[in-house]
Amino acid sequence: MNPFNGAPNKQKSILGIGNALIDVLINITDDSILQKFGLPKGSMTLVDSVLSAEIKKETKTNTRIIQTGGSAANTVHGIAKLGGRCGYIGKISKDEFGNFYVEDFRNNKINTHFFYSETGTGHATGLISPDSERTFGTYLGAAMELTAEEMTPEIFRDYGILHIEGYLVQNHALIEAAMKTAKENGLLVSIDMASFNIVEQNLDFLHRIIRQYVDIVFANEEEALALTGKNPEEALAEIADMCSIAVVKLGAQGSLIKSDNRVVRIDAIPAKNIDTTGAGDIYASGFLYALAENLDLEVAGKIGSLLAGNVVEVIGAKIPEETWERLIPEIEAIKQSGN
Questions:
Q1: What is the pTM of this model?
Q2: Between these two residues, 2 and 311, which has the higher pLDDT value?
Q3: Which end of the chain has less Cβ packing within 10 Å, N or C?
């Protein structure tokens, strides 16, 4: 099933909402720093400005890159690179990081709905372990001040789907207001579970809003386990009972998709795994873009898998421009194979 089939043209435009953050991605030589700062490996942990500064000080001699980030922002960024129509809601500050954010989204022709705060633009310090796993210590800054009251109907009316990152559940009122307003304006709702510890801390809330509002759920193996207590196949079935389309991502083992009684297994592409940052986000880019183009679920999964396999080969959540030039013809071939 493709929930976009037969829908008006506005359905092809995708709106993301999330924590607008700058990613500061740092290679670490071992995991001792994670224990030192109490960061569970592979998780996203909220930190205050003091701890964020301490982590950066501890790693000041390590290799690093800086990019625009935030899970939903990464997904929207990928959709724009694919040629999809998209927009983004977030809160930033008129500071150096905020200006960097605005310029990047403008350059990528993403329609923005930015709100501003006197608090500094948030940033996520991503510590990349030697095995390529990434662990985030996130200072939300201005992003945390996005409010339910700012979710006005006018923002949503030109879009067909709202994609929400699970990290927003630090503000239950906001995430529910966004979903409710989206549904009232005829949008489908997609959510990425974001991190297993986020799911564990908000389990009852997530179960309720998925059943009440959500059409598409993305979860990796750990998040699916946290949400259902079950292995990937059983978790897939349980999540699919809550919504229209369930996607469980299995890293190097590919992904599973279920809608109604149909289950699709997608293989991962061969890849040299350097950094998993953004792999799930860019998978969602390919998947949602394909659905918006009225393509089959299997095609959507293959495009998502292709993008994810390419982003893990570089540091950060952004596929390089020269790689996009190679990927676009491959994606067109996948699209044609599904016709």
A1: 0.89
A2: 311
A3: C
Reported as a pLDDT band with limits 50, 70 and 90, residue 65 is: confident
* Cα separation, 335 vs 32, whole angstroms: 45
Alpha-carbon distance 125 to 142, whole Å? 16
Q: Do 189 and 216 meet the contact criterion of CB atoms below 8 Å apart?
A: yes
Place of tokens 């989206």: 182
pLDDT band for position 8 (50/70/90)? Answer: very low
Please provide the size of the chain in residues.
Answer: 339
Distance of CA 94 to the CA centre of its chain: 24
**In angstroms, how far is CA 232 from the centroid of its own chain?**
20
Of 103, 119, 141, 172, nearest in space to 20 by CA: 141
**On the CB side of 260, how many CA atoms lie within 13 Å of its CA?**
5
Helix (H) or strand (E) holding 283: helix 279-292
Rounded CA-CA distance 168/173 in Å is: 10
Cα 271 to Cα 36: distance, rounded to the nearest angstrom: 31
The SS3 of residue 14 is strand
Among the four given CATH numbers 3.40.50.300, 3.40.50.20, 3.90.1150.10, 3.40.1190.20, the one describing domain 10-20+69-118+146-337:
3.40.1190.20
CA separation for the pair 223, 255 (Å, rounded): 13
